[in-house]
Amino acid sequence: MNKTRGFDHSGSTFDSFLEEEGILEETEALAIKRVIAWQLKQAMKEKHITKYAMAKRLHTSRSQVDRLLHPDNIGVTIGTLSKAAKVVGKRIALEVVDATPRQSFRTQLQRRASGELRGKQQTTIGAAR
User: Fold this and answer.
1) Does the residue 7 lie in any domain?
2) Per the structure, how many domains does the chain have?
3) DSSP codes joined into one string, 41-107
4) Ramachandran assignment for 99, one of left (phi > 0), alpha (psi -120 to 50 degrees), beta (any other)
5) Domain CATH for 76
6) Which end of the chain is more exposed for a tag (fewer CB within 10 A), N or C?
């Protein structure tokens, strides 16, 4: 009896798949934007800030706020994100981490959420505290 084995997926990760497809960085950028958009929406809801009020405080149009809050629009500048965060009493924190050994983006988010990365140096943008 001749048994054929399929591709052995053991040891491979979703990140390695995305990297092989050439879309890892784009996928990570989209995930980051989705998280930030969600966080801004939550903060707006907590502070009872409408999109119209947000637009007024940012000195822009409501359609620009819609683009800012759209989870798939990764073309938003860091400056715009920082201003929006300040409006809702938050700030944006960016961090540059070693590329190797590569940790999955999910692992990095889990470590950050657990407070494991809090002691590391961070670059912060915006002054709202």
Assistant:
1) no
2) 1
3) HHHHHHTT--HHHHHHHHTS-HHHHHHHH-TT-----HHHHHHHHHHTT--EEE-----SSPPPHHH
4) alpha
5) 1.10.260.40
6) N
Residue 30 backbone zone (phi > 0: left; psi -120 to 50: alpha; other: beta): alpha
Asked if residue 90 lies in contact with residue 43, where contact means CB atoms within 8 angstroms, the answer is yes
pLDDT per position as a tens digit, 67-82: 999 999 999 999 999 9
Cα(76)–Cα(64) distance, rounded to whole angstroms? 10
Residue at token pair 């961070």: 122
Domain interval for residue 94: 23-125
What is the distance between the alpha carbons of residues 128 and 126, in angstroms, rounded to a whole number? 6
Residue 88 lies in a domain: yes
| Residue 3 located in a structural domain | no
